[in-house]
Design brief:
Number of helices: 10
Oligomer: single chain
Mean pLDDT: 92
Distance between the termini: 37 Å
CATH architecture: 3-Layer(aba) Sandwich
Order of helices and strands: EEEHEEHEHHHHEHEHEEHH
Structural class: alpha/beta
Number of domains: 1
CATH topology: Rossmann fold
Number of strands: 10
Low-confidence stretches: 1-10
Largest sheet: 6 strands, mixed
Strand content: 25-35%
């Protein structure tokens, strides 16, 4: 399959988050957090529970708007835009908890999200998703409530890909999944990366993230406290212990 993003420069900043602050009411969660993802790059966001990872994702998507700072998608400022307009700029979200439509079939869940706003050279189609996840083809007529947790995660990824996103964002990519299903998800993400898909992923499995990601960010109490490559991350056990509890 051709590189889906071959027409974009590898050095292009697809997502830029600069010094954002986000609150839930009077409770502030993010304190000047920054990160970036380049086109064709796979980047992880790590940190202990409660440090602000999901809030970061929600801020990027406009679901919990940041009150200050900057969020740019392909150079366009989006911090004050509603979430549907941000999504239309090419962000596909696989949310924590999957949020599958329970009263739609697998096929209907996928088709409900289908779009190709950027005229992709090799767009994601129903057949392509079934090729990526054959189990969804087998379960195409089943309702969302009839799927296992692993099947729901495959469906959530497939649904996001059906929007043909420039950037795929996964919040807790393998949380709560059986080991064999986790391995299948990691293999899927490796394949997507090889095909040129830009990815921002939140997960707790440091070793898998280090194996397939280009760069990593660690956040602590709503701030970016470290960023670097996989080699730098794995060469510093003290860093992993201090901020990730490993």
């Amino acid at each position: 399959m051709a590189d889906r993003l071959a027409d974009q420069s590898a050095d292009t900043a697809l997502l830029e988050v600069e010094d954002i602050e986000t609150c839930y009411g009077l409770s502030q969660v993010l304190f000047g957090l920054s990160l970036s993802v380049k086109s064709g790059e796979m980047v992880s966001l790590m940190g202990r529970n409660g440090m602000g990872k999901t809030t970061t994702i929600r801020s990027i998507m406009g679901l919990t708007p940041a009150r200050s700072g900057a969020i740019r998608v392909a150079g366009q400022e989006v911090r004050t835009l509603p979430s549907y307009r941000i999504a239309k700029l090419g962000l596909g979200l696989v949310p924590e908890g999957r949020q599958i439509f329970p009263n739609l079939t697998v096929r209907e869940n996928l088709m409900a999200a289908a779009a190709d706003r950027f005229a992709s050279k090799d767009p994601w189609t129903l057949a392509a998703i079934y090729d990526l996840f054959p189990r969804l083809d087998e379960r195409a007529a089943n309702m969302g409530t009839q799927l296992s947790g692993g099947e729901q995660q495959m469906l959530a990824i497939g649904r996001a890909l059906m929007t043909n996103p420039k950037l795929l964002i996964l919040d807790e990519a393998t949380e709560g999944l059986a080991p064999l299903i986790r391995e299948e998800i990691w293999n899927c993400l490796s394949l997507l990366k090889k095909r040129g898909q830009s990815i921002l992923v939140v997960d707790k499995n440091v070793h898998h993230l280090a194996r397939i990601c280009d760069r990593h960010y660690i956040i602590e109490r709503g701030k970016t406290v470290w960023s670097g490559t996989s080699d730098q991350l794995m060469a510093d056990p003290e860093l992993q212990h201090r901020y990730l509890g490993i």
